[in-house]
Amino acid sequence: MVFFIFVLFSSNVFGDMANTSTKKYINYLDISFNQGFRKLGDYYSGSGNIDSNFGFLYTYDEKNSFFLNLGIYYNGDPVDFKRDIDERILNNSITTEWRRKIDKNLLRFCVAYSDEKIKQGTSNSFDDNIYNNKRKGIGLNYDINYEKGVFGAGVIYRRIEFPNYTDLLTEFKNQNSLLDDSGVYNNDLYRFEIRWKHKRYFFLSDFVYQHYLNQRVVNYDASYGQKQKNISYNFKLGLERKLYIFDFYPSVSLSFYRSNQNFLRFNSITDINPVFLKDAYSYDEYSFALPFSYFLKDITINLEFRYTYRAYKNRNARNSNNEYISEKQKNKKEIFALTISKKMNEISEFLITYFHHHLTSNNKYDVYLPLNYTSDYIAVGYRINY
Amino acid sequence: MEGLVLVLFIFLFGSFNLSADLKSYAEQSVAKAITDPARFFSELKMDSEVVFPVNSGKRYTFNINFLPSLFPFTYLNSSFNYCLYKEGRLYTSFPQIDLIGGAAYMIGGDILANATDDVNKISVYGYHLGFVFSDSFESKIRIYYGFKHSYTLSRLKLSSSKKHTFLGVNITDFDSRFSDNILVFGVELLKELNKYWSINVSYGISRQTIVYGVGWYGKWFMMGFNFYPEGIIQIHPYWGMRLGF
Amino acid sequence: MVRRRSPVQARPTAFNIFMGKLFFLIFFTCFFSNGFLFSDVILSDTSGEVKIRKTPLGEWEELKEKNLKLSDGFAVRTENGRAKIIIDKSVIWLKNNTAIEVESTSKYLNAFGLVYGKIKVSVKAIGRKSRFSIKTLTAVCAITGADVMMESDLDGRLAIDVLFGEVEFSYLIPPKKGERNFIIPQGVSLKIIDVEKPYVLSVITQEKEKEILSSWEPSIVEEDRMQNILYRENQKISLKKFIAYSDNLNSEISNFVYKEKESDFEAARTLRDINGNLVRVDQRILRPDSRTVQFFNIIKRKDYKPYNYLTNFSWGQTGFKYNGEGYKDRIDLFVTTFNFNKDIPKNVGEWQGFFDKSDVHPEWATFVSANLISRDNVFFVGEAYKYLETRGELINNTEVVGVPQNTNERDNDIILTGKIGKEYLNDIVMYNFKERDKDSPTGELARISDNNVINGALWGVKVSKQEIKDNNSFYQLNRIKYLKGANPSNEYFYLCQENYLISNDGKIRNKDDIVSSNKSVADIIKENAVQSVNYVKRDNNGVADDDYIGSYNIDLVLIGDLPFSMFENTSRGVDRWKD
Predict the structure, then answer these.
(1) Residue C406: what are its φ and ψ, rounded to 5°?
(2) Residue A84's pLDDT is what?
(3) Contact A133, A117 (CB under 8 A)
(4) Domains in chain A, start-ordered, CATH in brackets?
(5) Exposed e or buried b for every residue in C14-36, given b needs 16+ CB within 10 A?
(6) Which residues contact C173 (CB under 8 A, 6 or more apart)?
(7) To the nearest whole number, what is the mean pLDDT of chain C?
(8) Could you tell me the residue ranges of all domains in chain C?
(9) What percent of chain B has pLDDT over 90?
(10) Are the beta carbons of C472 and B169 separated by less than 8 Å?
């Protein structure tokens, strides 16, 4: 409703194109939707998504400006699913930022809130599901502009809450092992970031620290120990280049994720001897991406090839019988993406999208989350951009 | 051009998708419909809820959806969009304001009831009410946005020959309702004289109903595709009458 | 001292008040009537050669003053120049070689005559009863809330391009063919090339649109205007980048939000039960092996209050008395396990097709409720089903425990119950049990795998059932009598169940709360749950309040989230094996 009111009262920007006087505020709209079909192995499903953003910029004076972004995002049976093939994710978010110019540099302070709802399948509703979460937080960034580029640093904080999450499986095994009744999965996330763009090259590095408020590390006897902490170091290096007729943006990324959480593998609820895996979630990940763009009058062609390799530090792979083998788990992902968009008029485009995913892993027990499959996805869509 | 690509895409890949496991797809769809009949009937009715703004030069439009609402979903339907205020008429840049509303009643309820042993009678009906604002971005391009309340009631009378009990209670009928408050946003383009093209997105703030669509309409008729990613039938091609006065 | 009103300060009468107001009304009306009745038509800006004529028969003069007020009969002509006329909030721009006459400046009728040339008109804020019209040799155009470009010449040729709004077009002389009066809508151009021939309508072209949108201001320099546009474009780029940045950030944070999936489906809820205890429920689906699927519902109560009889429905009914104590951190469990004769597809979306295959059937199924009475012991009640090839269906009779079903009595349902070590619960759930002595049944269970006795576990065959229910409230009390081991020399015992449909607040639902709620099924599922309390009681020539095994109960709260969500993938299976 806030979104609707905002649009309503900004309506005079949509009209009166003949008025060319400078206004203190401007709006921006970007809504795209795609409807496609996904083939995952022998399984077919329809897949749709909407991304809608409403942006607002108010220039208070030469030095100060205020940004606002309202977003509504929906992803149903997505191609690159996070947890489940049939997952549907609905996210409403609001981000505001105040910018102040200090000489040539920029100080940015932002406040953000997002409400994410996740469900499986179509029958269920989005409300009150176990992984619904709310994220709220602030961020501070400083960008130093110089002749050939920009250097920036920033810090972001988010409190991530899961109001409906509960985990009673280990409590059945060990009745004395208790987690707090509410807010079991709530956590605080801190992200420290450095960005550098020099001429055509860019470099990003960030450090993420995630501290769980109540979730604890599970022990071999299903008791709980210290609080769970996750840490991640990420690096990305890339450049922008013109390669023949294409615009080319290759990049390389490295990620080092560490968690103190362990894993108890229950075969069934009544499994009295679950297998204990210490440090089950830490991994190193390497990826490179080769995106190309080609512009021809009002047609844009985007091609991308991306390869990701993840190696778990201490998690052993499983065979198809759910038994652990001696090798550590390794996952590979290859993605090929093609998007063709044609401008229909000044504010709308028609899109055709094709994705090809190929995933392999030495973990052959992937009934809950597929790790070995090939999937194809083709979709048509439209985009309104003003 | 894009219309042709769209049609090809939907019928080629849609049929490819269906033929791969048609029976399984049908059973899954029936199961989804049974779990929440009011929501299913509401989805079938939504194509008849026309949100296109009243054209320039007209005061109101009268709409009937033939496909798929009337056939095959057997909804007797009509909707009426009335322009309360023309854009810029009294106040600079104030958008055009249209009031929209309509109703639908499923006459094929009895046919549906006969198809199953468990149900004797099915009555389904509903309405929608709302308003749409439209602003001209350029002379031929309008952006429209609005709000509608959509309501569908389904009343099932269960068969007396088959006993339906739950925890000892004899269930003879079941009424369920699906209603949503929906925000609508779209773009309309005047392509040729009396020929318009439009895309729009609807988002239900109460029940997260998500619909997006593309349509073409002119002096007499309207047609297009509505997509329901959360729906039981995800793609609805539609065709209907849209008269402006 | 009381202050008195002096005789002079007489209280004003109603008549005096009225006359006073009338006087002011007349005064202000006369004073401002000029403004009320007539629009201000001002020649506000010019550039180049512009001439004016003050009366219809007057001479053309050079324009000498700025902001000249135009009244009825005035005319303006641009030769090698441009002009701008403001009428209240509306504007007329004149291009070069254009002549326009002012016919009426009345508030309710602003009428102008375009003699020849090209003008752009932007009409705003016209009252409902007001009219703004431009006349040419051929037609009259009434414009309300519109931006229009008009071009005409002395031969009667006319072009009208409606950028925004609508124009009511009327021929001065009715045409030979076609309508005399009609509306030109937004985005449409009308052309009359030959007055003898009909008009032509078309969609406004891009060039025309650009021409209309370009600056017609006599004194604004094009560079200034372009600068403004550039500034706005830069602002827009900043806004786009900000949106892209916040989307990207959200997406990166999402990578740290999602927990790795180790089950097929998960649901959870916190609610209150009938006794007001706060209950947490965790539902999942697991796959113990490639042919088995297990759905379970774990219920936890931090505080479990003791009670004698759960509700007033069970008061006065023997068999529903709870003899146990209250305690902390109570765990109850409900598990359903199905084992099939073929490997189940990995992808849940393919289950529907799998269940539909005629050569696929469950080999066995178990339904077990349990209460963790201590760290190492459970009290359980369960049922088991076994697939019989001869019948082609799942059966629940003595064949389940390996005792031949050779009488009608043995064809009844059997029950499993007992207080056992936690390590044996897996054997019950995974159908690793049988009658210890099938030739002379004792009612005790042993493992199939190693013949070891499952201490504390027993089974019985159903003898009779009594149901107490109500047709308006969702409650059901069952008293089911069993014969231990189906052996007449053994004792009887009773399974007593209290089943309720409750809201998330713990209130028992009535029929109308569900069937006439006018809510969607998804809402009904999310707002309700089933509470099922199970006791195993002694037989004392009828059901007694004394417990058969121990002072235990199993107090389940089952939510419908998972079955509701999974029904679209399992309906075929439910349909085939529901009985």
Answers:
(1) -115, 5
(2) 84
(3) no
(4) 2-281 (2.40.160), 282-386 (no CATH)
(5) eeeeeeeeeeeeeeeeeeeeeee
(6) C138
(7) 87
(8) 32-213, 265-577
(9) 51
(10) yes
Closest-CA distance of chain B to residue A134, Å? 17
- For C424-468, the three-class secondary structure string (H helix, E strand, C coil) is HHHHHHCCCCEECCCCCCCCEEECCCCCCEEEEEEEEEEEEEEEE
Chains touching B (at least 3 CB pairs under 8 A) are A, C
Whether A18 shows a pLDDT value over 50: the answer reads: no
pLDDT of residue B36: 80
Find which of A329-338, B229-238, C352-361 is predicted with most confidence, using mean pLDDT: A329-338
DSSP code, position C541: S
Answer whether residue B15 is part of any domain: no
Residue B1 pLDDT level (bands cut at 50, 70, 90):
low
Given C145, C186, C524, which is nearest B89 (Cβ)?
A: C145
| Domains in chain B, number | 1
Contacts of A69 in chain C (CB under 8 A): 242-243, 246
A354-370 average pLDDT score: 92
Q: Looking at the complex, report in whole angstroms how far the Cα of residue A245 sits from the nearest Cα belonging to chain C.
A: 24
The CATH class for the domain spanning C32-213 reads mainly beta
From A118, which residue of chain B is nearest by alpha-carbon distance?
Answer: B208
C2-11, C132-141, C192-201: range with lowest mean pLDDT? C2-11
Q: How buried is residue A331: exposed, middle or buried, by Cβ count under 10 Å (0-12/13-18/19+)?
A: buried
Which of C162, C196, C163 is closest to C182 using CA atoms?
C162
Query: What six digits make up the tokens of A147?
Result: 């002749």
- Whether B184 has a pLDDT exceeding 90, the answer reads yes
Q: What would the mean pLDDT of A198-224 be, rounded to a whole number?
A: 92
| Residue at B8 is within a domain | no
Q: Which two tokens stand for residue A114?
A: 């997002």
Pair B203, B210: CB distance under 8 Å: yes
* DSSP classification of residue A104: T
Buried b (16+ CB within 10 A) or exposed e, B76-106: ebbbebebebbbbbeeebbbbbbbbbbbbeb
Taking the C-alpha atoms of residue A185 and residue C475, their distance in angstroms, rounded to an integer, is 36
| Interval A30-86: pLDDT, tens | 999 999 999 988 788 888 999 999 999 999 998 999 999 999 999 998 888 888 888
Using one digit for the tens of pLDDT, what is the confidence trace for C326-362?
988 899 999 999 999 999 988 888 888 888 888 899 9
Domain extent, residue B50, equals: 36-244
Burial class (CB in 10 A: 0-12, 13-18, 19+), C358: exposed
Task: Tell me the pLDDT band of B22, cut-offs 50, 70 and 90.
Answer: low
- The answer to whether residue B31 sits within a structural domain is no
pTM: 0.86
Q: Specify whether the CB–CB gap between A91 and A71 falls below 8 A.
A: yes
Q: Is the pLDDT of residue C35 over 60?
A: no
Query: What is the per-residue pLDDT for B69?
Result: 92
Residue B217 within a domain: yes
Q: What is the model's pLDDT at position C229?
A: 75
- Do the Cβ atoms of A88 and B230 come within 8 Å? yes
Q: What are C434's strand-pairing partners?
A: C446
Measure the CA–CA gap between B77 and B149, rounded to whole angstroms.
16
| Contact predicate A52/B185, CB 8 Å | yes
Q: Do C286 and A269 touch (CB under 8 A)?
A: yes
Residues C19, C24, C26, C27, CA torsion sign: positive
Q: Is the peptide bond before B95 cis (omega within 30 degrees of 0)?
A: no
**Consecutive H or E run containing A362:** none
At B201, which CATH number?
A: 2.40.160
Sign of the alpha-carbon torsion through C242, C243, C247, C250? positive
Q: Residue C7: its pLDDT value, please?
A: 38
> What is the mean predicted confidence (pLDDT) over A143-168?
94
